[in-house]
Amino acid sequence: MVQTMQVKTQPIPVAHRVGRPPAGHWDFGGEREPLMHRIHAYPAKFPAFITQKAVAYAKERGVTVNRIADVFCGCGTTALEAKRLNTDFWGCDINPVATLITRVKREDYQPHWLKTHATRILHSFDRRRLPRHPSQQDDERLRYWYDFDRIRSLARLKAAIESLPEGKYRDFFLCAFSNILKPTSRWLTKSIKPQVDPDKDAADVRAAFDAQVSFMIKAATQSRHATASKSEIQTGNFLEMDIPKPFADLVITSPPYVTSYEYADLHQLSTLWLGYTDDYRKLRYGTIGSLYHDTDFLQDVKKINQTGNDLVFRLYDVEHRKARATARYFVDMHRTVKQCRKILRPGGMVLFVIGNTEYKGVKVDNAAYLRSCLVQEGFSEVETAQRKVSSKTLTPYRDTLGRFSTDATSRKVYAEEFILTGRNP
Ligand SMILES: C[S@@+](CC[C@H](N)C(=O)[O-])C[C@H]1O[C@@H](n2cnc3c(N)ncnc32)[C@H](O)[C@@H]1O
User: Fold this and answer.
1) Which residue lies with its CA nearest to atom 18 of ligand 1?
2) Is the CB of residue 61 less than 8 Å from the CB of residue 9?
3) pLDDT digits (tens, 9 = 90+) for 210-247
4) 8-state DSSP, 189
5) Looking at 321-330, 368-377, 389-398, which range is the least confident one?
6) Pocket probe mutation, ligand 1, options 51, 100, 287, 343, max atoms within 8 Å of Cβ
7) Beta carbon of 227 within 6 Å of any ligand 1 atom
8) Is the pLDDT of residue 393 over 80?
């Protein structure tokens, strides 16, 4: 059902006055997602059809969509869909693993070259002399996740990939490498918290890489798409980016949730292996929604509006730490809205996909808060629609490891989320 709320609208030209989409509009897409969307696991990825529908929605309302931006681009869902629509794309994410996957999805590859490089890499892997003691063997964190043989094999594989010249082909194989790092480790499969599975039979490095590369070549071949559209993908904190002038017509994004996923922790195997940091915890800094920020609660609550304050203080009654993190999250979401306004050209549109959460019986209504920020920052035609999230209907509760739980005091994950839209006047 499309939920309507009290909306403040600016007068718009008659030609562009379009009714709200029917109930269920945002629930399902019409086509199967291209395989390219599945080349790398990523938490809280949104369905690809949202981009297609968002573009149609914006165009129906008179927006000329020449450039799409995703300010939290994650694993590049919007980037790939923008490419399929022959539309320019600008994306950013604070996590270098996210921008690696996004770059790979946005590129076009010659299948012949992919196969040739894949054969060479495996050949080099098989023949390469084993370093007696690869440097990775001294990394305590890696030793925690892998047995000695796998560290040696992964080090050998990485060296084989890095013998390719820098560029899109090397990135393609580094992305494949990144996606086998969890299956070949002791990481508890599908866990959203870093947790060792003592009974896990970790995958063989060579076999996992071979299968992953075959899948990715199939995906890249299916997604071959001559496009003249351009893309720019930046690794960095969106909140701290200097935006001298507007450059986008449509922002399509899904912000991080508060304290649900620690992206830096979840991507630690990739960031360590790919050398993005010597300590994955450094990447928590600036990541919106992290529980680990040094916060000044009193300053934060002063910065957030009444809607945010009401939510934070209800949470404060049940757990101070969550309330502090939520206050900082709300400050950051407000800054996000301000930054989005800066990047949007006049008449442009923003579309957020956002879910609510519940903690110890207190509902954190992220959608209501974000909506209040959009109105406060002068966006017009602010609309909220509800969409069903089919995979979350089994049981709404998750334990601290993110596993399904029937315990109603656990974290609640809703079976619906919200599409919020607003127009830059
Ligand atoms: C919900 S995910 C986006 C998923 C994406 N829509 C997809 O389909 O893959 C949110 C993303 O925000 C990123 N993020 C968190 N804080 C950020 C910041 N300050 N600047 C830029 N990106 C940030 C996280 O790294 C994460 O990839």
Assistant:
1) 237
2) no
3) 999 999 999 999 998 777 899 999 999 999 999 999 99
4) T
5) 389-398
6) 287
7) no
8) no
CB 288 within 8 A of CB 329: yes
Domain boundaries, the chain: 14-97+231-423, 111-222
Q: What pTM value is reported for the model?
A: 0.91
CA distance 364 to 358: 6
SS3 151: helix
Residue 224 CA: distances (Å) to CA of 83, 108, 110, 186: 10, 6, 8, 35
Distance 256 CA to ligand 1 centre (A): 6
Q: Are 58 and 204 in contact (CB under 8 A)?
A: no
CB 423 within 8 Å of CB 349: yes
DSSP 202-226: PPPHHHHHHHHHHHHHHHHHHT---
Pairwise CA distance, residues 96 & 116, whole Å: 27
Q: Is 405 helix (H, G, I), strand (E, B) or coil?
A: strand
Chain position carrying tokens 């054969």: 119
CATH of domain 14-97+231-423: 3.40.50.150
Q: Find the DSSP H helices in 354-393.
A: 366-376
